[in-house]
Amino acid sequence: MALFLVMLSAKAQFRKIPAVVTDSFKTKYENATKVSWKDNIANFQASFKIGNDNAKAFYSSKGEWLKTERNYSIEGLPEEIKDGLKKSKYAGWPVKEKWALICYNVEVVWKTFLYLPLI
User: Fold this and answer.
1) What pTM was computed for the model?
2) Is 7 helix (H, G, I), strand (E, B) or coil?
3) Helical residues (DSSP H) of 1-119, grouped into ranges
4) Residue 2 lies in a domain
5) Cβ(44)–Cβ(67) below 8 Å
6) Pairing of strands 95-103, 65-71
7) CATH number of the domain where residue 64 is located
8) Quick one: which of 18, 50, 11 has its CA closest to 31?
9) pLDDT tens per residue across span 44-58
10) Cα separation, 119 vs 107, whole angstroms
11) Buried b (16+ CB within 10 A) or exposed e, 108-119
């Protein structure tokens, strides 16, 4: 019984998500659905859906947007990203997952994870 109670308390939020954070999120992502919040101590993380894509947005305790990570299907990637992958030495590798990392005041940085083909 004691172990069960300890496990429950470990899942609890450390702090209440500040209204300035949730308001900032609602302004930036007014069409977001299935929103859930997590306190990461150094920042607050909103996990949500934008259309059919999964995303995570990170905010400071002052409501400042820090970054967004968004999952894209291969079809949803920009043409220049797909073209670059086709021309790279990894062209034949299966794509594991696709993410766009969008940072405040910085260009979009694309990360694509590939499976190493078994020989």
Assistant:
1) 0.71
2) helix
3) 2-10, 19-28, 79-87
4) no
5) no
6) antiparallel
7) 3.10.450.360
8) 50
9) 999 999 888 899 999
10) 37
11) eebebeeeeeee
